[in-house]
């Protein structure tokens, strides 16, 4: 594979066979995206609008990014075991001047609910050849609604974010890499990137509405970060650190659970969710 150093404001990388163009659309709930996918928005009997709430099936879901060296990949990245890896095999640290795929994943999903959508933003040093440089984004879901809509390189905009969906009937994400009961991992897509100086690449709330969310295959949304998110002991959004020798490690909240609280309402109020 011929590799060209990623750039900030324009893509310098030859298009790969599994890259898919971004769909341009204004933000709508996950149900509308699914309706657009099936082409049955006028005929399909859909449930009511999805809503964020406490006690949702995927309340423990997290959104993370982990990196895999380009040289270690073979086959299609979206379906590789390296992208959908067990928690303890995910990498949150990288070296400078090396090329990586940065997989954006939903982890710790509930198998009986599945994963059908995710929305998030990204944060890093966007200066050209300063910190992380992202050269390309490849979609692994069915539909995406990047913001701003007019930019293919949505990740290079300070307001940039994306909303990605899978068909909940034919492609509900239920794979548990570490075995039954250990949590679903869904690969939303991946960046092609390198870092020229020390930097952190982190998942954030989607800037245009201030929320990071996950939707299950029954169209129930769980807020991972934002105003309606449950109180967590640690953030449920991951990050990767890049350093000269790769020794600085980012955040991997995969497997992190809420603290156990008392069963009384007083205990819940005092401890939080």
Brief digest:
The chain is mainly β. It has helices spanning 30-38, 265-271, and strands at 62-69, 93-95, 100-109, 117-123, 132-139, 143-144, 161-165, 184-195, 199-204, 212-215, 221-225, 239-243.
Note the topology.
Layout lengths: L29 H9 L23 E8 L23 E3 L4 E10 L7 E7 L8 E8 L3 E2 L16 E5 L18 E12 L3 E6 L7 E4 L5 E5 L13 E5 L21 H7 L2
Parallel strand pairs: 2-12
Antiparallel strand pairs: 1-3, 3-8, 4-7, 4-9, 4-10, 5-8, 6-7, 9-12, 10-11
What does this structure look like?
This protein has 273 residues and is mainly β. It is built from 2 helices and 12 strands, in the order H-E-E-E-E-E-E-E-E-E-E-E-E-H. It has helices at residues 30-38, 265-271, and strands at residues 62-69, 93-95, 100-109, 117-123, 132-139, 143-144, 161-165, 184-195, 199-204, 212-215, 221-225, 239-243. Strands 2, 4, 6, 7, 9, 10, 11 and 12 form an 8-stranded mixed sheet that branches. It has a 4-stranded antiparallel sheet with strand order 1-3-8-5, with no helix packed on it. A hairpin with a 5-residue loop joins strand 10 and strand 11. The protein is globular.
The CATH first-level class comes to Mainly Beta
- Overall mean pLDDT score? 80
Give Rg in angstroms. 18 Å
Q: Which architecture per CATH? A: Sandwich
Share of helical residues: under 10%
Work out the count of structural domains. Answer: 1
In the predicted model, the low-confidence regions spanning at least 5 consecutive residues are 1-30, 34-52, 258-273
Q: Cα distance, first to last residue?
A: 48 Å
N-to-C order of helices and strands: HEEEEEEEEEEEEH
The beta-strand count equals: 12
Number of helices: 2
| Major sheet characteristics | 8 strands, mixed
What structural class should be given to the helix and strand makeup? mainly beta
Shape: globular
**Which fold name is given in CATH as the topology?**
Immunoglobulin-like
Strand content: 25-35%
